[in-house]
Amino acid sequence: MEFFALNGAQVSRIGLGTWALGGSEWGTVSDQDAIDTCLAVFEHGVNLIDTAPIYGRGRAEELIGEAMQKHGDREKFYIATKAGLEWNEKGVFANSSPDRLRREFDDSLRRLNTDYVDLYQIHWPDTTLPVERAAEVLLDLYEQKKIRAIGVSNFSAADMAAFRRAAPLHSNQPPYNIFERAIDDEVLPYCREHSIAVLTYSSLCRSLLGGRLSRDTQFGEGDIRGVDPKFQPPRFGQYLDAVAQLDAFARGNYGKSVLDLAIRWVLDRPGVSAALWGAKRPDQLGAVKEIFGWRLDDSAMREIDRIVRESVTDPVGPEYLTPDIRI
Questions:
Q1: Does 229 fall in a domain?
Q2: pLDDT value of residue 325
């Protein structure tokens, strides 16, 4: 395992993303599988577990709390959770009002059954409020030692600059993978310049880069990929063609799978600290061992770029994930 320093803590460069463990947008997951997966991370050198209240409407946090209780050593876990999204029958909305953030933090502590959070992140910028308002709340929690690091997620360079006027900023968590690279333009350079750690989510592009999907794959009711434009024809076929070529390249040059290649690609990008990917069962963490001990050089990066450019002629980003604006 490779590690990076985040405000003094040693954190694994691979993290378990727990959106799927919430059991509401990625198909059902048994409680036992979820808990066992959270405990299995240590077998692979992973200590970073990333979650959020929105994942299963609090269920993912509860299951992580149960796993930590079963394990018995809270300090072994590096828990990153979030705040700033609310949901109701009308949809999901960004809400970083100070009262809501403080209430969310208390709710997360209760669900996680802990008295501190290692990394607390604003999930999405709330465009109805100055960014500094949210920063002030996290600064207060940090000064009280209730959180050990301050983070954001899905923030632009301008958002981060505004946030840093009111509080220190230790990390940003954006989407980033072989197919979705918007942060290359401004976010990654800004984070490198200001020593802000970058924890990438959707490192496998919602499982697209896992190498197991085909044109006949059907997604169950409620599965978020059912509304993701990447998974709709004709785009889906373009992305699958790219995945097949990337898999052939990985196997021919490294003896690795496209999944291994996708995660190594993220970790080898300048400025990236860690890559998050989801798992529903302990056996899905087995690929971790394949990620380390090799690297992608410049010629490999160019070949990957060529494959994507020539295969995906109608690319689309993850914009559909953006929450609605609170009215």
A1: no
A2: 78
For residues 173 and 82, give the distance between their C-alpha atoms in angstroms, rounded to a whole number.
10
pLDDT of 200-235, one tens digit each? Answer: 999 999 889 999 988 888 887 777 788 889 999 999
Determine the Cα–Cα distance for residues 276 and 204; give it in Å rounded to an integer: 9
**Which phi and psi (to 5°) does residue 9 adopt?**
-95, 145
- How many Cβ atoms are within 10 Å of 288's Cβ, its own excluded? 22
- Structural domains counted in the chain: 1
pTM: 0.94
Taking the C-alpha atoms of residue 134 and residue 137, their distance in angstroms, rounded to an integer, is: 5
End-to-end CA distance of the chain: 45
Domain assignment present for residue 326? The answer is no
| Spatial separation of the C-alpha atoms in residues 322 and 154, rounded to whole Å | 9
E strand residue ranges, the chain: 3-6, 9-12, 14-17, 48-50, 78-83, 85-88, 91-94, 119-122, 150-153, 171-173, 197-200, 274-278
* 14-42 burial: b if 16+ Cβ within 10 Å, else e: bbbbbbbbbbbbbeebeeebbbebbbbbe
| Residue 198 in domain | yes
Q: What CA–CA distance (Å, rounded) separates 204 from 261?
A: 10
Q: Which two tokens stand for residue 137?
A: 């709340």
- The candidate with the shortest Cα–Cα distance to 126, out of 110, 112, 137, 114, is 137
Rg of the chain over CA atoms, in angstroms?
19
Catalytic hit among 55, 78, 142, 239: 55
Q: How far apart are CA 29 and CA 218, in angstroms?
A: 17
Instruction: Give CA–CA dist 291/122, Å, rounded.
Output: 29
What mean pLDDT is predicted for residues 292-299? 97
CATH of the domain at 66: 3.20.20.100
pLDDT over 80 (residue 2) = yes
Query: Can you give the residue range of the structural domain that contains 139?
Result: 3-208+260-285
- pLDDT digit string, tens, across residues 47-84: 999 999 999 888 999 999 999 999 999 999 999 999 99
What's the CA gap between 65 and 112, in Å, rounded? 4
In the chain, the amino acid numbered 6 is L
> Does 254 qualify as catalytic in the annotation?
no
